[in-house]
Structure formats: C-alpha cells, structure tokens
Design goal:
alpha/beta, Rossmann fold, Hypothetical Protein Tm841, Chain: A,domain 3, 2 domains, 4-stranded parallel sheet, 23% strand, globular
C-alpha cells in the first residue's frame, strides 16, 4: 500500500509537512467586497495582513470552497506519483461543502484509487494532528481500513473550543445586532464556542474577561488529561492574530504537565472570517492507539 493524504487549507498545517511527497492540499479562498481575493494560508505575514483588513472592513468577506476539478487534478497527480490509497481529512461538513465536493470527486476515481474521505468534524490544528497520527499509522504498517477507523476514533475523542473576542465580527456576520455587541464589548464578554459531535458549532459558555477564558480552558484541559493520561493527550492552540495572549494561556495550562504534547498555529483566514481578530482556539486531542 502506497498512501497519500489530502487536506484542505483550513487545517493550517506546518509548511514543512506540506513538502512531503505524499501530502496534498486543496485551497479555499477569501473574497473581499473590494475585489481582492486571498488564498487561504497560515503564513504569518499574509495572515496578519488579512486580520488587519478584516477589522477595517464594514462587511465580512465571503469564502469559496475548492471546485470539483481541483480535487480531480490532485487525484490525477496522486495516480501519476504511483500512490494507490488516499486518506482525505477535511473541514467539518457542517461548516462547508468542501467535504461533500471531495466525496463527489472521489466517486469518479473508485476504480483507480482506494479513497477514504474523512470528515474531521472540526478545523485547524486538530486536523493537522489527525494527519500526523495517520502518517504514524501508515509507518506502522496498519491496513487502510484500520487507519481510517482509528482516525475517526481520534476525531470522536477530540474537541475544539474557540473564544471570540471581536463581537463586531458577529454583527457583520448577522449573528448579533449592534446593541448586543456594544453591551457585550462593554462587559468584556467572550463567547466560547465548541464543535459538537456532529461537527456543528455550539455555545460552551459566555465568560467575562480573558482571565476567565483561561480558567475555562484550564478546566477543560485538566479534565481531558485526567481522562486520557498525559502520554496520550495533546492540548493544541490556534489564534486569530493573538499570539501573545495565546502563549500566556498555553503556558499557564501546561505548567503542570511535562509530558503533554502541544503546538500553536495561526487560524487561517477562512476560519478567521468567522472567528474574527483576537479569537483564541484550543483543541483537546488524543493519540492513536498503536
């Protein structure tokens, strides 16, 4: 079995990982009202530029998913590179049609490739973790069916949380009115959202102040580590151009744990459209059982 992995750009994975010959990516795009089109990325400079423009814009930009032909182009490249098995880890099907389009494209190649489209039921760093675990399982010689099943188990035992700072971003998106945002901003309210088991978004809590976000995240992380153990747990972080605040939260949470794996990334612009500048994400994740 020669296996390739396909992700979408919202995974925001390390550029060094994308350089591996068996990793392929389809890109989403962001479309501003002034006509500027941005390709989704987690590179620091263009991402910072995006968040600055997002705050200055009166309207939220729109996002565009990859077209069917982009997946087919990648499948052709995979066949040409002599891979026979493909694992696709894609953003939550509850948030975008990206997953459904991938499934449709995969159906055109079922006689040429063994393709396993997997709904990550989330986004960002958490998807990168599942990719890394899939690579570890491939290296261990597991069957394609077992890798797909274990990847889904990892997804089902992991959760993403996002604390929203910029309530005006919710106004632009029609999820709050100006009065609600004004009151929330004055009271320093941070809604904390989370990805439910089906990949949809729910409200975990509403807290007043960044310090209370930190406390909420600390409890979530402590409970997760108590359940799965330090050696099997990961606590991952992503942010909407809020690196300093996220580092403080990360360091406080991980101070008591020397064996818990962790890393931090920017939330890509496509995710930033919805989370807004200053949002802080945390994922509780588990390792594959190998």
């Amino acid at each position: 079995m020669r296996s390739a992995i396909v992700v979408d750009s919202t995974a925001g994975i390390d550029p060094a990982l994308l350089e591996q010959p068996n990793i392929f990516q389809v890109d989403l795009t962001i479309n501003f009202k002034d006509g500027e089109i941005i390709t989704d990325t987690n590179e620091p400079e263009p991402t910072k530029k995006f968040y600055k423009k997002l705050v200055e814009s009166d309207e939220l930009p729109t996002t565009s998913q990859p077209e069917l032909g982009e997946y087919m182009k990648i499948f052709d490249q995979i066949i040409e590179a002599d891979f026979d098995t493909v694992f696709m880890f894609l953003m939550s099907s509850q948030l975008s049609g990206t997953y459904q389009t991938a499934v449709l494209a995969a159906s055109e190649y079922d006689e040429k490739l063994s393709i396993f489209p997997i709904d990550s039921k989330g986004v960002s760093i958490y998807t990168e973790h599942v990719v890394l675990e899939a690579l570890r399982m491939i290296e261990a010689g597991m069957s394609a069916e077992d890798i797909a099943a274990e990847s889904r188990w990892i997804i089902d035992h992991s959760t993403i949380y996002v604390a929203i700072k910029d309530l005006n971003n919710l106004v632009k998106g029609g999820r709050l009115n100006n009065r609600q945002a004004f009151i929330g901003t004055m009271l320093k309210v941070w809604p904390i959202l989370y990805f439910k088991q089906d990949g949809g978004l729910g409200i975990y809590d509403k807290v007043r102040s960044l310090k209370k976000v930190q406390r909420a995240y600390k409890k979530i992380a402590d409970d997760h580590i108590a359940k799965y153990g330090e050696d099997q747990s990961l606590i991952l972080f992503a942010h909407g151009d809020a690196e300093e605040e996220t580092i403080k939260i990360r360091d406080q949470i991980l101070a008591d744990y020397s064996d818990v794996s962790s890393w931090m990334r920017y939330l890509t612009p496509v995710i930033g459209v919805h989370g807004g500048k200053g949002c802080i994400g945390m994922a509780t994740a588990v390792k594959a059982r190998i």
